[in-house]
Amino acid sequence: MRRISIFGATGSVGEQTVELIRRAGGTNAYQIVALTGGRNVARLAEIAAELRPEIAVCADPSGLGDLRDRLTGTGIAVAAGPQAIAEAADRPADWVMSAIVGAAGLVPGLRALAQGATLALANKESLVTAGRLLMAEAQRHNARVLPVDSEHSAIFQALAGEDIAAVERIILTASGGALRDWPLERLAGATVKDALAHPNWAMGQRITIDSASMFNKALEVIETREFFGVRPDQIEVILHPESLIHSMVGFRDGAIMAHMGAPDMRHSIGYALNWPERAELPVARLDLAQIGSLTFRAPDPNRFPALRLAREVMARRGLSGAAFNAAKEVALDHFLAGRLGFMAMAGVVEDTLSAVSADLGPENVIMSLADVLAMDHLARVRAGESAARRAKGT
Ligand code: NAD
Ligand code: MG
Question: What angle do CA 182, 188, 191 make, to 5 degrees?
């Protein structure tokens, strides 16, 4: 039986992974090795009781007693804290879902690759933070990374059987998020509730806000560069409000291959779970006559400074991705807490990139994990300082 672990099992991607595993036969079809969650111990315990992993781990150390109580008598081992999550990734598995949100997903992903597991990667932050390190680790251990982000799964599928050298351009589609039709002058006053009203995709809170600010697309542009190894100038972003084309690859003969489907993460999670085969998935089938038309437009650079910052990160490389991601996470925390305006998030990231510019290291070497983690830490400090300066009402 295939051995599977799910990191971030209680999140949006994690729950959908659990659902597909359940539909495919659950513990009759797969042997579950490790399940991890953050603070929602009750839900982690429920999923564990159903899927019977060897071990269940919560990120929050204060949840350990509760997790133990809920799983007593089941024979499932329990643990808590970031170190325990990393150790859970050392347990031999064939397929590991990386669906923790944020830079916290990096270390478990690296550890899963080191034991040779196939890494289904939803955690784009690990590619942005340490793309070259992650891909080198995969190569070193002859382990595979399968993209789960819908755009990257689409690109991966469009590239099946193709020579990457024949690729001219990669076109990432973007819904534009909840605020895409707001007038520019109102954006600065957008609230968390406004930014959470995503028109097409139901996702975790953080990525939904990142969609409205286009920081999500900025991360995905960098993710594309790191995963597929194309040049930054080959990567384009187009607004596609219907979110039915999940991304496209243009080849040197002018042909464009597009991946279409309902805006449903079970497409890309299911593709990664069943790869290299395709299995029946519980996703809506598109009725093209009903849909009628698809629309596209260029993103307005004034609305989405995050896209320009992503270009700077790709030009600079080194540790700039680690700084960019960490600063973005801090800016988002401050926005969620109501301390920072919506457009000020990009300002915090820009301030941080310039504050750490002397510490970004050489451009074309693979950075060590220690260097990446040190930059992650430094950028969080600098971003906190910038956020305090830019705080609302000061
Ligand atoms: P989510 O917030 O719904 O879930 C995140 C999971 O990570 C939860 O299990 C949470 O408990 C856990 N977690 C949070 N902080 C943690 C920490 N510090 N240490 C360990 N675990 C922690 O997030 P999501 O929307 O499922 O997104 C997960 C990842 O997938 C992100 O990297 C996101 O960018 C990516 N992604 C998500 C979607 C989507 O549709 N939700 C689409 C594409 C990519
Ligand atoms: Mg995406």
Answer: 80
